[in-house]
Fold each of these.
Amino acid sequence: AGQMEKHGFQTEVKQLLHLMIHSLYSNKEIFLRELVSNASDAADKLRFKALSDNSLYGDDSDLHVRVSVDKDSRTITISDNGVGMTRDDVMNNLGTIAKSGTAEFFGQLSGDEAKDSKLIGQFGVGFYSAFIVADEVTVRTRSALDKDARGVEWRSQGEGDFEIADIDKARRGTDIILHLKDDADEFLDENRLRGIINKYSEHLSIPVQMWKEPVPESEDDEGNKVEGQPGEWETVNSGQALWTREKSDITDDEYKEFYKTVAHDFDEPLLWSHNKVEGTTEYTNLLYIPKRAPWDLWNREQQHGVKLYVKRVFIMDDAEQLMPTYLRFVRGLVDSNDLPLNVSREILQDNKITRAMRNGSTKKVLQMLKKLAKDDKEQYQQFWDTFGNVLKEGPAEDHTNRERIAELLRFASTHNDGAVQSVSLDDYIERMKEGQDKIFYIVADSYEAARNNPALEIFNKKGIEVLLLSERIDEWLMSHLTEFKEKQLQSVTRGDLDLGELDDEEDKAEQEKAEEAFKENLERFEKALGDKVKKVRVTNRLTNSPACIITDDNDMSTQMAKLMEAAGQ
Ligand code: ADP
Ligand code: MG
């Protein structure tokens, strides 16, 4: 072996290790899911590379993951003949955290273990989860891509540092050797390991194997010879990708377990939709809505959660072309029958097949949400409270589905007490007054500010419902949502508010009289306020307040102006 070097972990790795070991002690078994899934990813990556260079396989094209136990030395080894790692890869992958948004994640940690352990589940624990059960981890690896590369050994006790050295390794790929802690005995039991593999890795298309001991030749009760069996590597998972199976043969539990692996979530999904699409474009998708928001939901640059497969071969994570940004909370995969296996991100970007799959998948998600809203109000409310503000980006981004998205929106309203957003536009329309042809709303800084805005006085007096909007995104939303089911959406703080038939003759006469009476005062106000206002006018809209500020129909609303100002415009 070559010179051994010692390196310190990046600070975040130390924090992560500490947090993980303390918060996941009741969920130890997930280390195997993570390590087997990494091994399977490595095999997938090699299979993908080998599509364009078959020689990468050498004389070993039978990709697999093997899990073995050595009770005497108290070790578990997870071994793959996948893509492997170069020395640089090892340094980058197993000493730092390369995930995007890592800083944000650490910024969110509170020091409260219960809270933080939830976060970590969403962050995804990955390779470092080995240290939940091991007091020493050794990684021996050799890259399949760099033919001149030597092997590399990485070793750590999961405290502050790791050691790295060049080694000779005959087989390409990676062996991960875990030396178990005293309290992790249960994982020396092969049946326990088989159980965990069945639970989490059943669907992996790479065979996960365990060694079956040979059975010696023997004799039965009557003295007949019974043939022995040689030892062999036995495949533990069925190896059939879950989404390729018939829907009717898949149990809810299988869907849920699969979700946990694709989404790196500890929780069950809220709902899912599994579709085989045939016709001009052929593909299968399996799309999940999580229960909880991922920790980086608000980062619009965050990786998307939909993986791309082509004919069951894994192609890439986070295929952003497959799902619009306003549905970035969706997790799952799309498996295309039509794309070429050597598809790149560039090809995906402007591609008829991608577009068809994206449109189809988007509709499926919107349909599944619509159905949830109809079937289970409570769960839909949970969804809305978690992801509603992301969905509100929809009308601006996706014109084709504007109406479908609008149906899914929920608002606070003068019809309800409290700030909970539970009123749909359809609910509103159903309650509209006779002669009312518009949907009225107000946008303000907070629910309280909206609720108490003087502009609502006339509406309260006439018993007309007004939607109360107070999220940052709402102004943006409403500037792209001007109509729903042929009804105009009208802000109550804008312009010369026309209540149409809702204004009776008496109101109009009174208004005219007042305008006459106050004419001189108005001119004096305008003169005194100068450039600060465009116009001062008399209104019959107010019943309790002396005055209020409104904007012209074509001008920026006061909310939008504040937003622009905040953005430094
Ligand atoms: P993730 O799998 O989400 O990328 P992990 O912490 O599980 O994060 O793994 C970190 C990285 O280490 C992987 O992205 C991969 O590049 C590398 N890696 C881990 N295990 C293996 C393996 N068995 N073979 C090759 N590379 C691996
Ligand atoms: Mg991983």
Amino acid sequence: MADIPDRRRFLSICTTALIAGMSGLILTPVVAFVIGPLRRKAGNAAAESDFADAGVIESIPKGTWTLRPIEIVRQDGWVKTSQSRSVWVFVKSAESNGIKVLSPICPHLGCPVPWDAAASQFRCPCHGGVFGPDGARISGPPPRGLDPLEYEVRGKNLWVRWQDFEIGVAQRIVVQV
Ligand code: FES
């Protein structure tokens, strides 16, 4: 008769352990799903996702500036957003890796700056800012040259890291948006 309470206690411990084990099996993937995006956000996943495909390098005209569309996909926690942008790309020749990428946003007040092939200059239509063929400031109100953007060659494609910069200041300061 004395072993009945022991058996009950043993069964109670087994039941508790079983419930704990099953709870762990169920909750582990749920917790991973919930905190996964937050952990990724804490790392540099956001920065990596700012790289966007600007197309096959071979298809980009050589020796001139070309405006290339990019699609920036950002994962912010559980929210995924997509933004369309354009970047100025210069590929020197098919043989060389002479690639330059510039933001088209004027550092004066943010107007999009077109390339004037005849003058071999970037000319801002808003207030007459003029930039050289390397994006350096030549004249007008812009306080600095056009902002260069980082890029990577991945396979045959050019990937560009989009960044926004503070406008109206001489220093190149990245703005988090
Ligand atoms: Fe380009 Fe003012 S916005 S010169």
